[in-house]
Amino acid sequence: MEFPPPLLDAIPDNPYLLLTPGPLSTTKTVRAALLRDWCTWDRDYNDIIQRLRADLVGFATARAEEYTATLMQGSGTFCVESAVGSAVPRDGRLLVIANGAYGDRIAEMARVLGINLLVQDSGEVGPVDLALLDRNLAENPDITHLAVVHCETTTGMLNDIAAIGKIVKKHQKTYIVDAMSSFCGVPFDLAELGIDFMISSANKCIQGVPGFGFILARREALEACRGNARSLSLDLYGQWAAMENGGGKWRYTSPTHVVRAFCQAVEELKAEGPAARHIRYAKNQKRLVAGMAALGFRTLLAPENHSPIITAFLYPENCGFTFNEFYTHLKSRGFVIYPGKVSKADTFRIGNIGDVHIEDIERLLGEVSEFIMHNS
How much is the pLDDT for 58? Predict the structure, then answer.
């Protein structure tokens, strides 16, 4: 979509950069796309939906004919609940791998929905125990589905969904991956990893704005969801069937402005290239960690467990550090970071996805250095 210079000049600059795992900082052109109204019944709009669905599958796998995309109103959590609540049948059983707040949230969803549940808890900072997973699936043959979070943004942990997938498929279970904060920021192929359902959101690595998410599913697995849903509005099969049969029509009112902004974000992802975006994020994260280490900040996780999405840092010792002072200083200098989310350590988190570049990381490190000098 072309934007005339006067329009882009009217879009204000953001007062600060969001160094978070989403919502995140977007381009002016993405924000400008929000300024037009759309009709949900209009053919032009529904054609946009169909192109988006095809684009998403194309980003996800080289075997696009095996998969289909469903867009769903609401936050990423809505989409995860839609997938879990629709994929697992009433007589099914779900194993959830949990090593952070978002794995725990999937387990909480299952409990609320009345799904028979087994949780493999690795703790807040532990990688997945693959041998235990193999035993759990062997000893519990009634398990039908497994769910795991790819990038656990509680800590920045990147779980090995390839190794997990091999075990899941060895036991012939349905594989659900919450790739909320990793899809199009970390390369993987759904078909190669045996993923049956993958969930992500508009306001993550594709760099759109909040308001809807999407579920990419193996077509056969999705068709098997018919009649499983424990919710009307979050019925994944019902939403998919409406889009399939209606040529992109949503069942209920869609977030039209957000969708159009996402369409612009998709075009910008194509222009950059998913591989190049991954490289940019990875370079951001490596420079961030190295620069913070030089200033006395240690990471919570071992380097081999880091994702290129967000990093948890421990509070520095013996310097009177307070997160609120640190946060306020950085915000006043144009950066917003995240507080910690683990219970057993004092941490804060810095993300590096979105419209964030290496020069932004360098500027951030300069401001962190200034804070340390003034508070030492």
Answer: 98
Q: Which residue has the tokens 């979070």?
A: 149
- Give the tens place of pLDDT for each residue, 313-327: 999 887 778 999 999
Picking from 165, 149, 169, 168, the residue whose alpha carbon sits closest to that of residue 157 is: 149
pTM of the predicted model as reported, rounded to 2 decimal places: 0.95
Q: What is the pLDDT of residues 52-78, one digit of tens each?
A: 999 999 999 999 999 999 999 999 999
Distance of CA 86 to the CA centre of its chain: 20
